[in-house]
């Protein structure tokens, strides 16, 4: 229990200390007009209150990641707490803040545009493919997973197909309508459910004196799965997730002032880290042993753990409310996954989105592809999701490092986690069956070589950019 409580305190302190340092180092300009005002179109570029932006950002980045990921990561034992705390403070929140703020400084640009600008033109196309695949898979899974949860919650009284249809209709509307018409209005309600769910579970863990294990570096995984690199691909949301880099630019287009960035981007990542801590602690303490947790996971995946833990701690009525709070998460990330995909495609092909017909022109093919994916088994493709997700995170951190380096600021805050994650990425793809399936120790060494090669390219790109006199770090403000 002490480790759990200290971890929560560290996350909160991280916001007020390291988060404040990151903000001061970046240097928000309070008098610089944000894209919400400078490019206002009342569709995607709309100024909204900080509280609304913060809640939307939290729900956008959360999905089921900060719940299902930590539940699966709990199999490794309390070492998972370390990754959540330090990953969140020094990697994930930095990643989210830099992505959001650099996007604000570049007309609300999404990651593919930023990658092309700071890491080379070819990266624009590579990252565009990565992010669109990531968003399409996420959006599709976030149709089926909440539909299944709702179907089970209603004991099959409503056909699964009908629930999927209703969610699709909502996704279409939230993708093409102005952001303040649906998302900006219903997210406060969804946010209340999310907060109530997490706070309720966390409070009951403390009140009942749940046997949350204390910190140990021992790998507790029943199947002896290696901590490096698998833990860093199991717990993503709640520590570091590339999916966030696809969501922050949505809110960069609705942020009123740059001074709001720490609350919206850094702060909401810390909030997600706290949610992840609560569910990791619940998974470690409520099922008797790591083997017991694995047995429950084998029956119904992480959703069954959520249902059983909520009922155990909160009873049937409040447990159902908690489950509803979890159901909200994929829905509020699924809708913005499609919205973000629409915006990225529109930016890529330079298609203005003010006209309703043009938004539909981009959105409808996305939903057709998503619907087809719900009808087929894409398990093999989904195995690459975690790797694609963390690749996107690494790219976003490298973009942040390049921006800070060019600006003559402390680029190490992004470069260190970017390098660490890049090493993990190479290790993962070299050692795992979905990649090359090499010996793990050999993969560690080869990954170091690959990472060094990438770092060399990074500094080459830095010299190339700084040698161009016309390069503009921030996009000039329209007058």
TrEMBL record:
Coiled-coil residues: none
A Gene Ontology cellular-component term: plasma membrane
Every CstA N-terminal domain range: 3-217, 295-423
Membrane topology: Multi-pass membrane protein
Protein name: Carbon starvation protein CstA
The keyword Transmembrane helix appears for this protein: yes
Family membership: Belongs to the peptide transporter carbon starvation (CstA) (TC 2.A.114) family.
InterPro entries in the record: CstA, CstA_N
Superkingdom in the source lineage: Bacteria
GO biological process entries: cellular response to starvation
TM regions (residue ranges): 75-98, 126-148, 154-173, 185-206, 226-243, 264-290, 310-332, 360-378, 384-404, 411-430, 442-460
Main location: membrane
Keywords annotated in UniProt: Cell membrane, Membrane, Transmembrane, Transmembrane helix
Pfam families named in the record: CstA
Cellular compartments annotated: Cell membrane
